UniProtKB/TrEMBL annotation:
Membrane-spanning ranges: 15-39
Tagged with keyword Membrane: yes
Protein name (database record): Flagellar protein FliL
BP terms from Gene Ontology: bacterial-type flagellum-dependent swarming motility; chemotaxis
Membrane topology category: Single-pass membrane protein
Length: 169
């Protein structure tokens, strides 16, 4: 009798094990399908509509090099900052203009003037003389300014920065 109970238990355990594995696999498949649906986003009409809204404009990864079609230019005030140095005796005096993607960006720039000025001052004062004394260094500085300012803008983007005055002492 004990032998019969052992035989019945050994016959039941593979069936139960297969059933449990089947349920787990089924749940995993359902989970993968749900995740794929959630990550696929909205339908094409919603995506196309969002792309046409002004707030959905995305700033390009690089500054504009199209000097034949310069956009509206926003003049900035003069900046005088200490450059990063051990002796603390290096200064940078600069004036710049921001090339805007469109004229409707000007009111946002006016509204965020203090924030943009802070971004520019922090970027400039974090540079050393060696960082800004070469043409390549100035280009990298322009790239950094464009990227950092564009992070806080919604109604358009900065295409380029033009230095109209640049003196290092």
């Amino acid at each position: 009798m004990a032998d019969e109970d052992i035989k019945l238990e050994s016959k039941k355990s593979p069936v139960v094990l297969i059933a449990i594995i089947g349920v787990v696999v089924f749940l995993l498949i359902i989970g993968v399908i749900v995740v794929m649906l959630l990550m696929s986003g909205g339908d094409d009409k919603q995506v196309a509509q969002a792309a046409n809204t002004p707030s959905a404009q995305v700033a390009p990864k690089q500054r504009s090099n199209d000097f034949f079609n310069i956009g509206p230019v926003y003049p900035m005030e003069q900046y005088v900052v200490n450059l990063l140095s051990e002796s603390g005796t290096r200064y940078l005096k600069t004036t710049m203009n921001l090339e805007l993607s469109e004229e409707t960006l000007s009111p946002e720039i006016d509204k965020k003037q203090a924030l943009i000025r802070d971004i520019i001052i922090r970027s400039l004062s974090a540079k050393t003389y060696e960082d800004v004394s070469t043409a390549k260094g100035k280009e990298r500085l322009k790239d950094e300014l464009v990227t950092r300012i564009n992070e806080v803008l919604r109604d358009g983007y900065i295409k380029n920065v033009f230095f109209t005055d640049f003196i290092v002492q």
